[in-house]
Amino acid sequence: MTLLELRFYPIEGKQDCFKVTVEGSSGEVHHEPGLPFLDSQTPDVQDRRFTVVKILESTKFKEDNFSEEEQAWMVREQLLLPERNAFEPDYLATIGRRLYQILGQDIQQLIEAAVAEAKRDRIFLHIRLWFPAEDPKPVRITDYPWELLHNQYGFLAHQRVTFSRYIAYRSPCPNLPRVERLNVLLISSGAGDQSMGMPYLPAVEADAIANGLQQAQEQRHIQLEILESATLKALRRRLSERQTSAVPQVLHFDGHGFFGKRCNEIGCKKAYNQGATQCECGAPLGQAQGYLVFEDSDGKADYVSAKALGELLGNLQRREQPHSASGIALVVLSACKSAMSRKSESVFNGVAQSLIGAGIPAVVAMTYSIRVDAASAFVESFYRSVGEKNSLAIALRQGQSAMDIEGNQWYRPVLYLRWEDNEGGQLFKSVEPDAVSQKNLPLQQVPSTTKSKVRKKPSRVKQLRIESLKQNLEKLEQDYTDVAEKLRRESNPQERNNLELQLENIANDMEKIEQQLHELEDGDE
Question: 285 φ, ψ to 5°?
């Protein structure tokens, strides 16, 4: 895989244009285009970028979502049929061609040469979209769907090209150690909120992830764990388990995402759309930002802000020192709108951007709403590719391909990368094929100890959880034997106290697992 970096800069004192640079063989090539999607046929020139965002958010045209002025502009731009009853068949390509045209001929030639070379060598071209951390609101280069770039042959993403986004946060880039085995922690939240138009979600993605990881788990490349309950409290407790449980390198959230506002008054926590300024309880509402919809103890929606999640994961292990120990390297957000930061003041107000700002090296997120079937197809193919030890950039592209490139879902997953020497986000150490054990190892998962009031887990997932618990119990029994042997040989009183405390903790963990096994094996499906 080869790398081509497009760098985007605002121009000081100018709010209607920006600068793009690419490093070529003969030096830096740059271009200063005007902002795309401006509507000059209105009394005051209108910026229609958010009209484009609404188009890309849609699965089909709905008249009520667009004003008369927006519809007129969409017809002129050949995005909407003259009858105003459906999008033009090639509306995505039209948007992509417009973005490609404004890059300028010199930059286009460099891109064309890099694409041709990748095709000739049968490798992927990784185009990294570089953005400054301080992206002024009138320009907001990050708002544009650059992943839709389209030349005369089609979308670049369909020509052996994969994209990632890089926001140049001021702190140093992490340089992650690669792993022999990847631990994936899945949080599967079915919580919905009818008042915000969010239905309860079926439990289909856990099976899709398990299917995608099947071969990798047989080769002991990846271990999948499902969080016991999809609450923030359970996540915080799981991430604090440093002695008896493997620290996850990948955190995957499956559930609703939301971009808007939330009341922060104790006992309220009601969510609102971006335009709201005051809660029903009378409390003022703050700035709009991204939320993930976890479950509370009753299975109802619990809006966890991007800032709160970023603080939790960032404090777990700061990733910004070179050669730091293995920890969370990737967060995958299947939640709808988890990368969106539309009309907000900061590029870090979207969940993905906030996590990058908190020091997480890589985030895969959905820029727009995504259908459940499309999300499931993406994660199954994505994890199958990751399990084959492909980079995240390649896995993203293969996941997109599984979503039907003829439809309007494939462009919704995006990849944020921020670490040195990442080769497109390579998580694994290189290993010789004959060094990989082919032993058939059941996929390790952690069971749910709470029953959902709105959905049931598939029986296959339940069986995998039982197998996982038995393996965890075997490991704890071995740990208990090892610590007991150390205690037998230890003469230092302080060290003996520490070892006795370890034995007590391990015994408590064993008792909990035995109780969970009893509940799962004897309980109803």
Answer: -100, 140
Cα 216 from Cα 182, distance rounded (Å) = 10
Q: Which amino acid is at 132?
A: P
Hey, which residues does 467 pair with through a beta bridge? Answer: none
Rounded to 5 degrees, φ, ψ at 389 are 70, 30
Place of tokens 């990737």: 330
For 326, counting Cβ atoms within 10 Å of its Cβ (0-12 exposed, 13-18 middle, 19+ buried), the class is middle
Contact, 380 vs 211, CB < 8 A? yes
> Do 340 and 368 form a contact (C-beta atoms < 8 A)?
yes
> Do residues 420 and 173 touch, judged by C-beta distance below 8 A?
yes
Would you say 326 and 336 are in contact if contact means Cβ atoms under 8 Å apart? Answer: no
Please indicate whether residue 265 or residue 466 has the higher confidence score (pLDDT): 265
Span between the terminal Cα atoms of the chain, in Å: 46
Range from 245-249, 259-263, 507-511 that averages highest in pLDDT:
259-263
- Residue 347 pLDDT class (50, 70, 90 cuts): low
User: What is the C-alpha separation between 205 and 255, in angstroms, rounded?
Assistant: 9
The half-sphere exposure of 319 on its side-chain side, counting CA atoms within 13 A, is: 29
Burial of 64 (0-12, 13-18, 19+ CB in 10 A): exposed
Mean pLDDT score, 373-396: 90
Q: Which residue has the tokens 């490991």?
A: 475
Residues in the chain: 525
Residue 154's Cβ-side half-sphere holds a number of Cα atoms within 13 Å equal to 7
Q: Which two tokens stand for residue 484?
A: 């007991």
| CB contact set of 467 (below 8 Å; sequence gap of 6+) | 442, 443, 444, 445
**Cα 145 to Cα 345: distance, rounded to the nearest angstrom:** 18
Strand 271-272 and strand 250-254: the pairing is unpaired
Tokens of 403: 């979503």
Q: Over the stretch 404-434, which tens digit does the pLDDT of each residue have?
A: 888 899 999 999 998 766 678 998 886 444 3
Within 8 A by CB and 6+ apart from 360, the residues are 310, 313, 314, 319, 328, 329, 330, 331
Which backbone phi and psi does 166 adopt, to 5 degrees?
A: -130, 115
pTM: 0.77
CA 180 to chain centre: 22
- 107 near 20, Cβ under 8 Å? yes
Strand partners of residue 333: 253
Q: Alpha-carbon distance 346 to 356, whole Å?
A: 13
